[in-house]
Amino acid sequence: MEPRQQYVETAPGIRLWTERRGAPDAPALLLVMGAQASGLGWPDALVDALAARHQVIRYDHRDTGRSTTTFDQNPYPVTDLARDAVAVLDGLGVERAHLVGMSLGGMLTQLVLADHPERVLSATLIGTCALSEAPYVTLDGTEVPVGELPGIAPEVLEMWSRPVEDTGLEAELDRRVEHWRVLNGGQLDVDDACFRELERRIIAHTGTHIASTAHARADDSHMLRTDELADTKVPTLVLAAPAEPVFPPPHPHHLAQVIGGGATHVVEIPGMGHALPPAVQGPLAKAILTHTESARHDGSQVTAADSPTP
What is the rounded average pLDDT for all residues in the chain? Predict the structure, then answer.
């Protein structure tokens, strides 16, 4: 079945590009990408694997891809991006959906989970941190304040600190490939050609190779949802990445502790970092589909292949 593209107005003057794959009558699954990232950041092979059982929706955040570019004229807070996710469901006539969020998209998924749990069939969180002030509790009972959890790897911070200048298409592709190489972590081989082709498609889709910085400049206040996340009953899966350089362990297990009163489960994807290379796409799809199937049947969380709390 051919992908179905549609623009959805999520706020006055804001139109977001959306794409749906899979049977229209299958349970909806909304993919929420990270900061500065087009919906095409979800690789086609992963989308197609999920579309075998779901109507999979991916979309461009505002100021990415083919969606409205607005930040420089009308700055908005990060929380508006979460409202956009709900508005995409509204615009496509979807009452409830499984949500899968990566990086900033994982934070947006938590906001939807906290503020609109009635719209969420299940949640899957990848490469993100908890929007909670509750401490992390180690196996021996020690409480670790959120501010003392491991931070972003120095090599990532160094790359993010560099100014992004327009030096032409090929130089921008070089920069993006290097970015993915760093984010991929040190456990899996990096296929430069794969990431280069992905970014070339994203640039063609967007119509420009000039990278947006809107989300990095957006106000990120008023995002904590400590009590709401603790109270949620929505089945939630956290996918842990052992090579994660942005939100390294034990962030996934902290998420599992603070969402749903500790009932959320963690499944580790071997070798994964903060990227979606081909090697992790099969395990990702399997874990997500197992989780959504479990939620569809009885609302229970995933129990198979749970990784132990460190």
Answer: 93
Q: Tell me the three state secondary structure of residue 48.
A: helix
Nearest CA among 145, 141, 159 for reference residue 226: 145
Q: Half-sphere exposure (CA, 13 Å, Cβ side) for 262?
A: 5
Q: Which amino acid type is present at position 116? A: H
pLDDT tens string 116-167:
999 999 999 999 999 999 999 999 999 999 999 999 999 999 999 988 888 8
Residue with tokens 């107005």: 9
Count Cβ neighbours within 10 Å for each residue of 253-273 and write b for 16 or more, e otherwise: bbbbbbbbeeebbbbbbebbb
Cα separation, 13 vs 107, in Å, equals 24
Six token digits for residue 210 = 């000039």
CA angle 293, 278, 86 (to 5 degrees): 50
| Residue 286 in tokens | 């399997």
Classify residue 21 as left (phi > 0), alpha (psi -120 to 50) or beta: beta
Beta bridge pairs of residue 238: 125, 266
In terms of DSSP bridges, do strands 97-102 and 236-240 run parallel, antiparallel, or are they unpaired?
unpaired
pTM of the complete model beyond 0.70: yes
Say if strands 14-21 and 55-59 run parallel, antiparallel, or are unpaired.
antiparallel
